[in-house]
Amino acid sequence: MSAIDVDRLQRDLEAIVGPRRMSLRAIDLETYSRDMWPRLLLAYRDGKSPPFRPHAVVWPEHVREVVAIVKLARERKVPIVPYGGGSGVCGGAVPIHGGITIDTKRMQALRAVHAAELICDVEAGLSGERFERELDRRGYTFGHFPSSIYCSTVGGWLATRAAGQLSTKYGKVEDRVAGLTVVTGRGEIIETDGPNRALRGPNWTQLI
Ligand SMILES: Cc1cc2nc3c(=O)[nH]c(=O)nc-3n(C[C@H](O)[C@H](O)[C@H](O)COP(=O)(O)OP(=O)(O)OC[C@H]3O[C@@H](n4cnc5c(N)ncnc54)[C@H](O)[C@@H]3O)c2cc1C
């Protein structure tokens, strides 16, 4: 990774999401310097300055913006770190090489609930608690209740193959996924779902 031209990065990110949904402010870079990894929390408690910070934080609202950010990062050889609720306890969302932290929390729509199929279409940044409340209001449940449901996101659950209080009954989160819309590191979009996927080769939902 070559040195990052921060001014240029700022201009380019602003061109994608506008000035209000990206930040290079010190307070934001510090906020996104850690998740719930105890080692960094203890260092924070002891007043130590964070060892890792992103160069920029960005809050996309559409898949097309994520695609543009990923393509930009790839072109400039800038690392990216997806960030959901930041409740992970293993440092997965910590920007150990700096770069762009992509917070998904503005992608939070429950787009559709298909009653006949018992399938819903939900965006990655929706918080677990709001997701479950929205389903409950319609008479359904996702059946996934991690202790961190108030501070984690659907995308974070999937990335970590999370378990919850009723996983023995309903299965872990990956057992409840019909398909994914994935932005690859090249900025391509892959749709993994489809009833005939077994005929087409590997199970991309579980592979990813
Ligand atoms: C008090 C507490 C209780 C917890 N209880 C449980 C529990 O019961 N069960 C359990 O399994 N875990 C639990 N955890 C751990 C944590 O909540 C889970 O790992 C959760 O799934 C993380 O979700 P998140 O949205 O906070 O993800 P983050 O912490 O933001 O990210 C976790 C990882 O996923 C990646 N990621 C996030 N979103 C995306 C995305 N959209 N696309 C690609 N990658 C992404 C990040 O880069 C990072 O590597 C707990 C944590 C705490 C602090």
Which features does this protein show?
four-stranded mixed β-sheet, 3 domains, 8 helices, Uridine Diphospho-n-acetylenolpyruvylglucosamine Reductase, domain 2, globular, alpha/beta, binds flavin-adenine dinucleotide, 31% helix, two-stranded antiparallel sheet
Structure report:
There is one protein chain. The chain is of the alpha/beta class and 208 residues long. The chain has three domains: 6-103, Uridine Diphospho-n-acetylenolpyruvylglucosamine Reductase, domain 2; 110-177, Uridine Diphospho-n-acetylenolpyruvylglucosamine Reductase, domain 3; 178-208, no CATH class. Helix content is 31%, strand content 13%. The protein has eight helices and eight strands. The strands form three sheets. It has a four-stranded mixed beta sheet, with helices on one face. Strands 5-6 form a two-stranded antiparallel ribbon. The chain has a two-stranded antiparallel sheet with strand order 7-8. β5 (110-114) and β6 (119-122) form a beta hairpin. It is globular. The mean pLDDT is 94. The structure holds flavin-adenine dinucleotide (FAD). Flavin-adenine dinucleotide binds next to β3 and α6.
What is this entry, summarized?
The protein has 208 residues and is of the alpha/beta class. It has helices at residues 6-17, 26-31, 38-45, 63-76, 128-137, 154-160, 167-170, 204-207; strands at residues 22-23, 56-58, 80-83, 100-103, 110-114, 119-122, 181-183, 189-191. The chain is globular, with a radius of gyration of 18 Å.
